[in-house]
Amino acid sequence: MVRSGSQPGQPQHAHARRPRHRHRRAEPRAWSQPSPRMAVAPPSYCFVAFPPRAKDGLVVFGKNSARPRDEVQEVVYFSAADHEPESKVECTYISINQVPRTHAIVISRPAWLWGAEMGANEHGVCIANEAVNAREPAAETEALLGMDLVRLGLERGATAKEALDVIIALLEEHGQGGNYYEDANSCHSFQSAYLIVDREEAWVLETVGKYWAAEKITEGVKCICNQLSLTTKIDAEHPELRSYAQSQGRDTLEKQEESITVQTMIDVLRDKASGVCVDSESFLTTASIVSVLPQSRSSPCVHYFTGTPDPSRSIFKPFIFVDDVKLVPKAQSPCFGDDDPAKKEPRFQEKPDRRHELYKAHEWARAVLESDEEQGQKLRKTMLELEKQGLEAMEEILTSSDPLDPTEVGDLFYDCVDTEIKFFK
Q1: What pLDDT is recorded for position 386?
Q2: Set 46, 91, 126, 187: catalytic member
């Protein structure tokens, strides 16, 4: 947990935390470009916009997940749960102590791992992770993945600040490391950055090993990608950290002249010309999320997931937290249990078919969009019309003065996925 107060020699707005374990002191290394022997992180992007740049008192959050082209992401809902004392939670590579209660969450994650690339919880907290290029080599030793920390922050933090504290504490206790990809031939390990957002504020958290720096955001627009960006405006930092990065973030959203809306964020995530939407030989935007967090607590948060690759050829589908959310197995990958090659050592000796029903249906749509110009144009028009219907329905909910009827939205995401699959078939 970050302590308030200042350390000698620090600016008054800086907060520091003493590490739980003693770290061996070494000459600080600048956070900069990766060394030639290191894996290069794909350029994922995530954004947040606060009022008045965002429209109608809304905080708008968006994230593109750039991953290996053939990787499948699933969208999974987990209800709030109570846990037995001294129980453990099995993350991607290691087990850690469980907490007495975890919040309800909805996440988009590579289907082979435990954590999440991005997601939200029932309290209106959204978190996205970025694999980061840094000069400091990332640990290949299996520990917590950055994606594990996304899920743990969502499960344990009821505000952005609480989630930040959770991630920092777990980072210092367990460290981060291990293969970011389902690849038996090489270990792709990265440092991590996070964008942690709620209705009132956001935190940018950047990490190298167990070291970290954080910046609080309450206005304007912020983007993070695969480069460390915090420089001198540090609101919290690891007590032994003194080397900062030069800004590398894109200003794609800043260029928007009008108020930023859900549609604005979706359009930015679909922009291939700017590089925000990745479609290269090795990497693809395999899933996307846009979340709308009304600053008025009388309105629900709405989270739009694609669950499919390439947002320019996908439909953003809405999800709202209520007590009785209908599960969506058609957006979930097959479960292989203890026989999953990701859980066996040595890992990843096989690569099972992790495609879910929505992914398979979308493969047909992508093929049409790529190969048949006339049919593809018609298909894209119809897909955008389906998406528009969902956006308009959510706009009505957000602008209504009537209380939300949970029975009307409990199966919202389920119905949208079902409609999309039927349409493709």
Answers
A1: 97
A2: 46
